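Pipeline run #58 for the internal structure catalog. This entry was flagged by the ingest filter as a single-chain record with no existing model, so it goes straight to prediction. Upstream metadata was stripped on purpose; only the residue string is passed forward. Reviewer on rotation: M.T. Logging verbosity set to normal.
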Amino acid sequence: MTSFHSDKYFIRESVYNLVELALLARMYEENCLPSSGGEVNKASLSQTLLKMKATEGKGELKVAIHDTDPIGFLWKYEGHETLWVHPTHRGEGVEQGLRG
């Protein structure tokens, strides 16, 4: 586990459990898909969750944690890389922590 900013943030590999993957898939669907407009399509959300689970052992999924809440992630899969950090935590070094 990597920490910075006086233990304000923690970066770790995903544990790939269903609760965490559901939260990360929702973040991805709401914030990383231009067509979503903040709306979540349940079928698309299910597909994203399955893709994230399939990343286990084949790609990389890192999570940024603030207090006890996930506030960002780095997801590398099938030659794609997606990095997203909640706007209120941008510029705090979280992006670099996820990449490092």
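catalog note: The longest strand covers residues 69-77.
catalog note: Strands lie at 2-4, 9-13, 60-66, 69-77, 80-85.
status: ready for reviewer M.T.
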